[in-house]
Amino acid sequence: MNEVLHGDCLTILEEMQDRSVDCVYLDPPFFTQKKHSLKSRKLKEYSFNDKWDSLVDYVEFLRKRLIEIRRIMQDHATIFFHCDRTAYHHIRLLLDEVFGYKNFQSEIIWTYKRWSNSQKNLLPSHQTIFMYSKTQDFK
């Protein structure tokens, strides 16, 4: 089935059957503590709020969804989790907790160029996609 489902992913995940998915790509909010918005060429605005009361709340938000994702994954399934440096280390520990550190398979580094350096510290120039499997018998 190729289908796009709209809504809170936790609600949708809870309605899905156990072991029904082969592959998951997750691009959640990054804990930027900002509201993000952009306008299309037709000036339609899209936005989402990435502000959290605490890092603990953010991690718990992810934990609930990852537990449900693991439940719906087939035994040979893989998950790709997209994040940036903001909460990277917390996410890696959470993925180890939910999927087991032995099921960490790879880390994809997505690099991009930044042209300005008006800030004091190094410019962020990459994001990370963690690859985990549900079991060692994965595709």
Shape, per Cα inertia axes: globular
In the predicted model, the low-confidence regions spanning at least 5 consecutive residues are none
Strand content: 25-35%
Strand order of the largest sheet: 1-4-6-5
Count the helices. How many? 3
Order of helices and strands: HEEEHEHEE
Ends apart, CA distance between termini:
18 Å
Helix content: 25-40%
Structural class determined from secondary elements: alpha+beta
Look at the structure and give the mean pLDDT: 92
- Write down the Rg: 17 Å
Short description:
The chain has 139 residues and is of the alpha+beta class. The chain has helices at residues 9-15, 55-72, 88-99; strands at residues 21-26, 34-39, 45-50, 73-83, 104-111, 126-133. Helices cover 27% and strands 32% of the residues.
Plain-language structure description:
The protein is of the alpha+beta class and 139 residues long. It has three helices and six strands. It has a four-stranded mixed β-sheet. Strand 2 (34-39) and strand 3 (45-50) form a beta hairpin. Helix 1 runs parallel beside helix 2 (55-72) and helix 2 runs parallel beside helix 3 (88-99). It starts with 8 loop residues before the first helix and ends in a 6-residue tail after the last strand.
